Amino acid sequence: MADSDQGDKTEDPTDKRRSEARQKGNVAKSVDVNAATIMLVATGGLLF
What is the pLDDT of residues 32-46, one digit of tens each? Predict the structure, then answer.
């Protein structure tokens, strides 16, 4: 029983769980994309 609580999940989440997570704002975000966007905006601001 203790083994079932540890490790990666073997099944994908259901559509209902995904939609509930999306409504709560619990979605995947890429930190690299945010950082790159900030750098581009800052560079553009310095050039103009």
Answer: 999 999 999 999 999
Concatenated DSSP letters of 1-48: -GGGGSS--SSPPPHHHHHHHHHTT-----HHHHHHHHHHHHHHHHH-
String of b and e for 11-39 (b: at least 16 CB within 10 Å)? eeeeeeeeeeeeeeeeeeeeeeeeeeeee
pLDDT digits (tens, 9 = 90+) for 2-18: 555 556 889 888 999 99
